[in-house]
Amino acid sequence: MQKSRTFALFLVFCWFSFQTAPSLGAQEWDDGDWGFHMMDLYARGDQTFAITLGVVFPTVFYHHVGSFGPPHNFSPPVGGAGSLSYSYFFGPRFFVGGEIGVSFNYTIGQNTIFIVPIGLRAGWQFVFGRFEFPITFTGGIAPQRFMDLSYFGWFLRGGVSGFFRFNSEWSFGLNTDWTWFPQRPPRREEDGYRNRNVDGNMLGLTISARYHF
């Protein structure tokens, strides 16, 4: 009799465990508790798409005469910028991707210069719970337009960001970056083949929304 009662209790326990296991699993992966189970690492094949908007500040401009002045002809000394970027993760931290953007600044004469950076990017990301800190390097071409003048240049950019992972699909963050725009226009006969090189540097402060898939 004692053995039969023990066996019956054992069957009841097994049945109860089987019935509650699915619900416990669902609770474990519920979005409310998602951060404790899915935020640790990225996996190979994870991807992100980001929309970025913000402002840019002209900073150091090095001229062909071997000086750092006058610094620039922008007024006010702040412009706007926006970009779309894509990243593909090869592991928990390393990612590569592409970026296309546009920035503009006003000159002293109230004209506008437009720059369209298009480049490849690579980065390394540190993750602490729901907070993510990517470090990125981007390089590529940078077509430029000012009034009726055009210049086809290139750029290099380094940036640091801080993101908060809102849920499994979205994260939001702040970015700061430093971009180098070297200009190497051809020497013209009418200028006596004078060197007119300029190295411009821009500081960007932007906000981003990233979609994870």
How would you portray this structure in words?
The chain contains 2 helices and 9 strands; from the N terminus they run H-H-E-E-E-E-E-E-E-E-E. Strands 1, 2, 3, 4, 5, 6, 7, 8 and 9 form a 9-stranded antiparallel β-sheet that branches. 15% of the residues lie in helices and 55% in strands. The protein has 2 domains: 2-33; 42-212, Beta Barrel (Porin), CATH 2.40.160.20. It is mostly beta strands. Strand 3 and strand 4 form a beta hairpin. It has helices at 2-28, 35-38; strands at 47-63, 79-89, 94-106, 112-115, 118-128, 131-146, 149-165, 170-183, 198-212.
- By CATH, the architecture of the largest domain is named Beta Barrel
Shape: elongated
Q: How much helix, percentage-wise, in residues?
A: 10-25%
The tally of strands reads: 9
Oligomer: single chain
Task: Give the SSE order as H and E letters.
Answer: HHEEEEEEEEE
Rg from alpha-carbon coordinates: 27 Å
Instruction: Assign the CATH topology of the largest domain.
Output: Porin
Q: What is the averaged pLDDT score?
A: 81
Span from first to last CA? 59 Å
Strand content: over 45%
> CATH first level of the largest domain: which class?
Mainly Beta
How many structural domains are formed by the residues?
A: 2
Which sheet architecture does the biggest sheet show?
Answer: 9 strands, antiparallel
- Helix count, DSSP H or I runs of 4 or more residues: 2
Which secondary-structure class do the elements indicate?
mainly beta
